[in-house]
Amino acid sequence: MSIQQGKQVKQLDRVIIRFAGDSGDGMQLTGDRFTQESAVFGNDLVTLPNFPAEIRAPQGTLPGVSSFQVHLADHDILTAGDAPDVLVAMNPAALKANLGDLPKGATIIVDTHDFTARNLAKAGYDTNPLDLLGDSNDPLGAFNVQPVDLTGMTVEAVKEFGLSRKDAARAKNMFALGLLSWMYGRPTEPTTTFLEKRFAKVADIRDANIAAFKAGWNYGETTETFVVQYEIKPAPMAPGTYRNITGNLALAYGLIAGGVQSGLPVFLGSYPITPASDILHELSKHKSFGVTTFQAEDEIAGVGAAIGASFAGALGVTTTSGPGIALKSEAIGLAVMTELPLLVVDVQRGGPSTGLPTKTEQADLLQAMFGRNGEAPLPIVAPQSPGDCFDAALEAARIAITYRTPVMLLSDGYLANGSEPWRIPELADLPTIDPAFATEPNHRPANAQGEDAEATEFWPYLRDEETLARPWAVPGTPGLEHRIGGLEKAEGHGNISYDPANHDYMVRTRQAKVDRIAESLPPLVVDDPSGQARVLVIGWGSTYGPIGAGVRRVRKAGYHVAQVHLRHLNPFPKDLGEILARYDKVLVPEMNLGQLSLLLRAKYLVDAVGYNQVRGLPLKAADVADAIGELIAQAEGTPVDLTSPVEEALS
Fold first, then answer.
1. E strand or H helix at 415, and its extent?
2. What is the SS3 assignment for 80-139?
3. How far is CA 420 from CA 34, 242, 258, 334, 557, in A?
4. Could you give phi then psi for residue 230, rounded to 5 degrees?
5. 165: burial class by Cβ within 10 Å (0-12, 13-18, 19+)?
6. Cβ atoms within 10 A of the Cβ of 461, count?
7. Least confident of 130-144, 390-404, 438-452
8. What is the pTM of this model?
9. C-alpha dihedral (143, 175, 32, 115), degrees to nearest 10
10. Averaged over 586-592, what is the pLDDT?
11. Can you name the residues that pair with 590 across neighbouring β-strands?
12. Percent of the chain with pLDDT over 90
């Protein structure tokens, strides 16, 4: 620890900060700006936005609390953190809703202005907890509480701009951001520049927000309330150009890259739905890359338009969440039958029905596998982090185009809204995808004379020997007139067929085509550094972070555990069965009631043990570590102690 200008400067390797307030207090904006500042500074970071589903939830109530958590560090981290080290609470409801997540000794910065009798009653407080600070009955005695009149100081700081008190008070989130930016040595230029652009057309609002931000910084610099400033050094990263990116943004960029690398125009047919709507918003900005966006009147129209675009030679895409997948299921079956490339993006959220629209879940796996009538197999790809959404989208495009099949891309709300530093890839490193359009007839009629007779007919269901993909002919290509549709087709010539043997053959062929994708997948990477592990932890999607952090904790306690994470859920990688057979115990953490566990048990007859929570929130690394410890104890027949000095490994 050092001292600068009368303030102590304490070095930290990591910190978890949560901003919480009413849904109208701008907590998402505040958290996003703090994140951007940290990204510019060079820290590794992971974020967790958490907000109500209502456009304007009841003010001052627990259901109306909105929060944004950011975990930043000077080293590689995997999650947004299990528990905040610092809570910024803008009202009583924000304090009460988040208090249970705080560890002992956590810092609470609380805006005293809104702790009125009415607001306390709304939050369920009988007495003001701030009045009991230091007493024997202090409910906040386990924490470092810093009461600050954020609102009052904000109003005073912006009074020169002539705003009403209500409008002036709205800038309190910028005051809080300035204070936290001082406490953790964040650069201020990015936020100042952002505010200048954001409110360029409203000078008073612009200047008031900037003044509030600077006032918060100056308050931290001059007050005796905060005597310690914290420093978290930049994290070492591989050379390259980085940006902070959310999963939805990365996924949109991946779709654009899929179009560019295949030379195909991208067509998005979509209906807005939380938490997938940002993909539609982003893609609509990129017409220069040959992207067309169509906001349809409903989910069925969106996927129907995308299938039509694929038939016409474009890369058809439709984006939605679980409820939309239910509505699109018949049309997705049509894409299976017509064997057209189609990307179906499911940004999963809490269900069933309307469920928890703004919360995360990964309970659509079985819906993606089986949620269509008949035998209608399709590949399933799942990203593991916000930045990985780019690569997963590009991989989904490769599979769809190469194998002539719809592909389900399973993201989720945590990935969609969360963010992390992302290394922008070099264009030369991106794969080239060849659509290999049919350009000439491919079949000689039966009455053609001689072996050298030219093909004069186009059969839309002749298949590539390697991929089993059928030819993709752009309508209007001379000599390649053909028809496809939802009725069963005869193999080869594609005429409608009700022949039992042909239907059996076509069903098996479509399944074999999906199974053959496994031949193009790289070997799975098994993280088993010691080679002595008897327990394997396997996951998919956004559980990658909590699983990885839990595995780190177990290893730092001196135990052996292996980890493997699946991107391809249908078909499974061809070496998965052999990997599962190496270990005595298999743990499958999921944000559902055991869907991947069910598939693994059915296919590989392995006694997969599920660790399952469906809370609308990401799994906690400490809980995953405890579940791993229990299996290690069973496998080795000895107790497992994870209480060694490894708490910091939770990152």
1. helix 413-417
2. CCCCCCEEEECCHHHHHHHHCCCCCCCEEEEEHHHCCHHHHHHCCCCCCHHHHCCCCCCC
3. 13, 10, 22, 37, 27
4. -110, 145
5. exposed
6. 18
7. 438-452
8. 0.95
9. 50
10. 98
11. 612
12. 93
